[in-house]
Amino acid sequence: MNNNLLIVISGPSGAGKGTVIEALLKQIPELTFSVSATTRPPRPSEKEGSDYFFISKDQFEAWIEQQKFLEYAVVHGHYYGTLRHFVLEKLAEKKEIILDVDVQGGARIKQEFPDAVFIFLVSSTFHELKTRLINRRTENEAAIQERIEDAKEELRQMGKYDYIVVNEVLEETIKDMLAIIRAEKCRTTRKLREVQCALSAC
Amino acid sequence: MNNNLLIVISGPSGAGKGTVIEALLKQIPELTFSVSATTRPPRPSEKEGSDYFFISKDQFEAWIEQQKFLEYAVVHGHYYGTLRHFVLEKLAEKKEIILDVDVQGGARIKQEFPDAVFIFLVSSTFHELKTRLINRRTENEAAIQERIEDAKEELRQMGKYDYIVVNEVLEETIKDMLAIIRAEKCRTTRKLREVQCALSAC
What we know:
five-stranded parallel sheet, 9 strands, homodimer, Rossmann fold, four-stranded mixed sheet
């Protein structure tokens, strides 16, 4: 019986995921950040095991073979991956865990954890998207078509997530995130699991 | 484009629905209570149009014929019904609306408003249910079976709702309700509707 949340957060760069996650970690003591492994060299401010697990390319590729990653990606020539055992251990410790992954990573995590909470964070993009679409009649046909196609792709990606949070005022964004986390604990599927466990004596 | 919420709250009598709804109405200015029609005579404290619309049995039955009710029920020999035009008017005025109906009523409302937010409020019942099930081995076989059947029926009812809120400490219950309302406004289906409207120029 495991009713603590696995929270997946995705969104375009510049949406402010880092800042939002940092604020959440401060406000929710039982929330843990999923520390990824990477082959990128550490920046001066970054700490091993707290920001990332810094490993070699050979090591990373061996771990891919050994299926140690829930998901991984290559960004600017470096590997980044979510460690399966890290996530499972935190869940076993009854901790909530928050993951910062791209949309492909999110899709893979959904396969293994269909009950996870998927949040797509956007900044002004979301409103720009609307404005772009609303204003499309003032542009030439090719530009319009390109914008519509871009917008549709963005919508397709967002559509796979449970929630879309528009990060304009950080304080409001944090309130949205906290509300989502609190509300998700009242979700019927989660609440009933406790009772159904008792029913089937699990 | 109508993104304000229709909130349906159900639960056994004694769960505290009235108190919870009253507290919510105070805290959320844009929230309106769906005033039902009834054939029950008014109590001294009750006001026409604010607690109920008090109407005759003939009137109620005529309105049933005219499909003026989203749902109706008979309780202790009196009719109670949710007025379709009342709900639609409030939604058109961009108000959030909260309905207090039984589970049969909830099911009917779900048919017309699949996007509504369905909350099941329970008091200690929920924990008693667990305790009952957990302790079932200490009882005789017939009693055990009866309790399991009762519990299964309760679970079936609750299972149709989006959220289960356990009302033990009113203040926490209100926080749960406010979180659900805030989180639901971030639901992808609702957020995307705004953009998709722009996309299809609706």
